[in-house]
Amino acid sequence: MTRLALTTTSFFYVFLLYGCTQGVIAPVDDKSSPSYSSLPLKYEVGVGDTLYGIAFRYGFDYRELAQANEIKEPYTIFPGQVLSFNKVRPAGQKGSSDRIVKHDKAPVKKMAPVNDSNKLPDLNPKVDRRIKSSSEDKISQWLWPTEGEVLREFAASLHKGIDISGKEGDPIVATAGGLVVYAGIGISGFGKLLIIKHNEKYLSAYGHNSSLLVKENESVSAGQLIAKKGSSGTDKVKLHFEIRREGKPMDPLKFLPRR
Q1: Distance (Å, rounded) from C-alpha 75 to C-alpha 12?
Q2: How many CA atoms, within 13 angstroms, populate the side-chain half-sphere of residue 55?
Q3: Which of 28, 114, 145, 151 is 20 to 30 A from 125, comparing alpha carbons?
Q4: Using one digit for the tens of pLDDT, what is the confidence trace for 81-104?
Q5: Cα 92 from Cα 231, distance rounded (Å)
Q6: pTM for the complete prediction?
């Protein structure tokens, strides 16, 4: 075999081997969706952690997590504290007898741009503003948190909320009144995240914000401006919005008013 033929043959086999190995290279992380952490047996509390944030990250009811670790209200935890998950079941493994009212899905209407930064668009034109009460068991009326189209819908374990399109800096409002129990960047894949506790059963979460306008332990009212839309922790400007009942992700489109 000539030197030229040998060189050509060697190059062919190197190229073939290279081509085969490409199929086993680990894929690049998809930043288009939040990441939900796998479940460890124990968790060491870090700076900025809250009990609500940890429960949200791993899919627990915060009350069960607190009870399992003998933590009393107001559920204060400290850096270095070790939480055990042995006696806590993920919320998705628990049944629920609550009836959820369903309605036909409709596309989210695009709202006209707002020039005055101090004036919020009317995100919920058909909502009766007189109904704002909530109880331990339910919210009388949920509000749309922002304008835009639903880019991605709820899909149980695959996508635990909905993604709503928009522009950088678009206003985000509280879907119902409550207490801010988490405000930060400590939960991977959600960027700048807010979690609001509405009552003993319901939480809502708002991810990928460009800025947070409320702080932990701050009370907010339904429709109050709480954040500005952004792309933190993801690849495009959008709001990732979740509603959780006793730690279990629920389909927000079954709660929000039809447009």
Answers
A1: 64
A2: 32
A3: 151
A4: 999 999 898 886 654 433 333 334
A5: 28
A6: 0.75
